[in-house]
Amino acid sequence: MSYYLYWGKAKPEDRGDSCHLLPYHSLDVGAVGWYLLEPQRPLTQRLASQLGLPPDSLRRFFVFLLGLHDLGKFARAFQGVARPDGVELAPPIERLAYNERHDRLGALLWQSCWIEWLQDGTLRWPDRDLDRKARRQLSETLRVILAPMFGHHGQPVEAGRLEPTEFFGHDDCASDSEAARRFVADWADLTDLDWPVDQLLCPEWREAFLELSWTVAGWATLSDWLGSNRDHFTYCQGPMPLADYWPIALERAEQALQESGFAKPPEPVPYVGLASWFGSQSITPTPLQREAETLPIGDGPQLFILEDVTGTGKTEAACILAQRLLAAGHGEGLYFALPTMATSNAMYERLGNLHQRFYAASSRPSFVLAHGARELNDTFVKAVAAEQPEDRDYTADDMTATTRCNRWLADSRKKSLLADVGVGTIDQALMGLLPFRHQSLRLYGLARKVLIVDEVHAYDHYMQTLLNQLLAHHARQGGSAILLTATMPRAMREALATAWKEGLGQAPASMQEETFPLLTQIGHEMEREVPLATRSEVSREVRIDWLATEEQALETVLAALEVGECVAWVRNTVDDAIRAYEQIRQHHPDPERCLLFHSRFVMADRQRLESDVIERLGKASTPDQRRGQVLISTQVFQESLDCDVDHMVSDLAPIDLLVQRAGRLQRHVRGLRCAPVLAVLAPEWSDSPDAQWLRRTLPGTQAVYRDTSLVWLTQRVLRELGAIRMPDEARTLIESVYGEVADLIPDGLQEARWEQRGMQGVAVSMANFNSLSLEQGYLCHPEFDQWQEQQEIGTRLIDEPTVNVALLKCMADGELTLWTEGEHHAAMLSQVKLRQSQAEKLAGLPADHQTQWEALQKHYKALCFTQPWLVESDTACSYDARWGVLFSVNTDNQGDECESA
User: Fold this and answer.
1) Does a structural domain hold residue 819?
2) Quick one: which H or E segment has residue 558?
3) Which residues lie closer than 8 Å to 422 by C-beta, 6 or more apart?
4) What's CA 314's distance to the chain center, in Å?
5) Helices in 669-808 by DSSP H: which ranges?
6) Strand partners, 10
7) Are 649 and 679 in contact (CB under 8 A)?
8) Is residue 417 helix, strand or coil?
9) pLDDT at residue 796, as a whole number
10) Both 214 and 313 in a single domain?
11) Is the pTM of this model over 0.70?
């Protein structure tokens, strides 16, 4: 029975061959996987080392298994989905209904036939007389190692209790199972299959594979996606021997990988000093950077935690370590994970072309910003997410690889996980732990990289729990990670180190060092805590002044303006920021020197505002540019922009946030200035506050920081010390708020504290409940199906789900178009992210524009998962390039009805 009677890919167009035969598609995918597992690649080396197989043997074995990924398409039930013209194929059998996905049918066929194929020589198994124990052992191991192959559409599948006769048939023309058997036999011969018998019969080896199976699943999915691209793998419906087609598949796979940026990892070069990066011999490394240059890079997975004050070059120190790790074979690329989109933008700009210094001049590493809204690497994007005609979808819930690839890549934030160097939010990495389709692609991307996490202290308990799990998994995969922070409690550092050691299978860490700054290094049987010196120029003292009312804050801002200073007022909510901006504009002699910056702007305006802030207040700004400037901002200012001001007002917030904000106060040397002062708007001090103590002065702040004991403890330690002195009192400041301080909490704040402690316990439980049990491997558990489609929720528990809203407008002729039509990446630049409750307040798209919206979605894939908003048709909400999204039509009172964020 010929396997040339089965199609693997079919298209609705008439031009060219009408289908691609199933054996050819299987070899296409195998060829892509063949190149992705080249023996010299660091990831291949790691997999081979951890599985005890030579790289060449591992490659041939895994590629053979990958070639079986579409065995389910031999089902006549599937073959009936399309009936390509002009080619002789196995005729459909009408009684066989295609009501199960083909990936699951592949698992079913294997489950039904593998013993027979093993015994009759199809599988080239060397010992066909296995005893019952060995056969049971082999059966379970084969189930485990084939799960990533059959689960190539984004989640594991299981045959369960399906019956083969319901989907596979035979008639005078063909027998489905016999055709599949012949293909498997010929494929095994072509790959010169050599089973690692000793490993497959060893339970410990199976356990080792389970930990790596998520990465293997990502490799299988990426191979299938790239191997399904018709631009490279032209349809072929004429029979030829597999041995003749295999060189064709390899040639096409090589071209596909070359054009998509996966042909080979960039070649790392050794680190030889900061001068090689910046072209100056006069650069003197900071103490942290010097330690990064000289510390021993051990074997195996490495974790580094860098704690130092702002301005000490933590990012450059992380880059030094990253380049040294790459050169030592600890990864193929980098992923910079940051708390927010704004910090991602800032890191992207800061790196510039620095990442290219890590690699040989002939290498061209792809560099992608996760959310895709700022200077995407268009060559990489065009190659990976190239527009191409869709293959015919099989059923509504069984999309082709082409369709799934296009949908997944339509959200350009995910591309950064596949690029050689990616910059993005921590969410994109954490989603690898959650049961979303194709999460294995995220883990595959991360497994190839050194993971760098900035502002690691900024995550809540839910995210912290997920981050600990991610670190443990990354260590199990053999990866390395670098964590950066200026303000981390000792307990958090110990938890992060313990998570890493858990991934290495070692006892919990015990962090003893209390000094600051500090570099911590964790590896196999290694714990190093290295106290660091501090340069005098970054040692600083910021005096604290206290303000009791918004009126006093306004007066403070205006007083600074009178003497020509530039000022920032950092507020805790968008609502409060808009109101303060309105008031200051009314009093400022030059209102154009007032700027409002928060998260509720479309990306185009947010980019413009970021650039404007940097121009006015950045490192290169001149005295004339800075004079009289006022920036009213939310947390995005403290988290992202390399700017500084002469004077700062801040709403009271937990101590780590105030330390961050103070880091933007006189950050750069600019000649003679008064000593830096941070004026903090806070309630009148009380030794015994009641539950409403914070709400009476800052109601929005209490809504954001519900554990009011944190802000009370912050006010307490700052009143005692009178200043923020860094780094001398860094530990005192942080531990006085986040350390063992339960006995200091006043009775009036105990309820809020215990409520938040309870919520934190719930957060940890929810993180553990929502996340996948990665140590159990990429396997299906039918009794508890966690898997979800593409929903961007789950990485942040305390926030409600967010919605990407696409702003639209009408042209003079009534045509619906994007808000930033004509701009490069207009589909991304026209979007704003809102909380779900905010998005629900926006007017729905008028029915007469629905067809035009669908046309826009088809043209711009980035609009696939967005909510449309035709601004001009909304009578209750509006958008303004100066104010952002407004939930009131009363533009004379823009702040009153705005939600906090």
Assistant:
1) yes
2) helix 550-562
3) 333, 334, 335, 336, 367, 368, 369, 370, 415, 416, 445, 449
4) 21
5) 699-704, 708-721, 730-738, 747-770
6) 19
7) yes
8) helix
9) 59
10) no
11) yes
Q: Are residues 98 and 231 in the same domain?
A: yes
- Paired sense of beta strands 567-570 and 518-523, if any: unpaired
Question: Which pair of structure tokens corresponds to residue 55?
Answer: 């790289």
- Token pair listed for 614: 């940097």
Which of 698 and 825 is assigned the larger pLDDT? Answer: 698
Bridge partners, 359 (sequence order): 268
Q: Give the tens place of pLDDT for each residue, 548-602.
A: 999 999 999 999 999 999 999 999 999 899 999 999 999 999 999 999 999 899 9
Q: What is the CATH number of the domain that holds 79?
A: 1.10.3210.30
Whether omega before 517 lies within 30 degrees of 0, making that bond cis, reads: yes
CA 312, 316, 321, 322 dihedral sign is positive
Residue-by-residue DSSP string for 261-304: T-SS---B-----HHHHHS-TT----HHHHHHHHS---SS--EE
If you count them, how many residues does the chain have?
901
Reduce the secondary structure of 511-527 to three states and give it as a string.
Answer: CCCCCCCEEEEEECCEE
Note whether 123 and 188 are within 8 A (CB).
yes
Per the CB < 8 A criterion, the answer to whether 712 and 701 are in contact is: no
Q: Is the peptide bond before 746 cis (omega within 30 degrees of 0)?
A: no
Find out whether 77 and 6 touch, Cβ atoms under 8 Å: no
Q: Domain range holding 514?
A: 285-379+412-531
Q: Using alpha carbons, select from 57, 447, 35, 430 the residue that is nearest to residue 213.
A: 447
Helix axes 203-227, 22-36, angle to 10 degrees: 110
**Residue type for position 300:** G
Q: What are phi and psi of 505, to 5 degrees?
A: 75, 30
Residue 640 to residue 636: CA distance in whole angstroms: 6
Strands 303-307 and 518-523: antiparallel
Total structural domains in the chain? Answer: 4
